[in-house]
Design brief:
DUF1878 family protein, mainly alpha, 113 residues, DUF1878, 6 helices, YhaI-like_sf, single chain, Hypothetical protein YhaI fold
């Protein structure tokens, strides 16, 4: 049964219906993107940022770096204002984006939490 909710357009209504059918706990990043209203361009910026940071992470790792705090700070500083850093990092981890980089971010945020 459809709840009595007002929708701006049919797309938001369809998204609402899909969110009822799909187990959104399996897709926390997608849920976060939908809930925050992140645009396609903003989502692409996030993915480009992650790709760039992952390249830097791999380079630093090869050079023997052991502390990746600067990468986390860069991520937080460049993250879209609609997104919460820790929530975004945990969502990325659950969906398997850049596992080594995100694992380091999780270690750091849990260390400083």
């Amino acid at each position: 049964m459809v709840e009595n909710i007002r929708y701006n357009d049919s797309t938001s209504f369809h998204l609402h219906l899909l969110s009822k059918v799909v187990d959104m706990d399996k897709y926390p990043l997608i849920k976060l993107i939908i809930d925050t209203g992140l645009s396609k361009d903003e989502c692409n910026e996030l993915l480009k940022l992650l790709h760039s940071l992952n390249i830097q992470y791999e380079t630093q790792k090869e050079e023997g770096f052991l502390d990746y705090t600067s990468l986390l700070l860069h991520f937080v500083g460049m993250l879209n204002e609609k997104l919460e850093p820790a929530k975004t990092i945990y969502a990325l981890k659950k969906e398997g984006y850049y596992p080594s980089l995100i694992r380091e971010f999780v270690i750091l945020i849990e260390k400083y939490d």
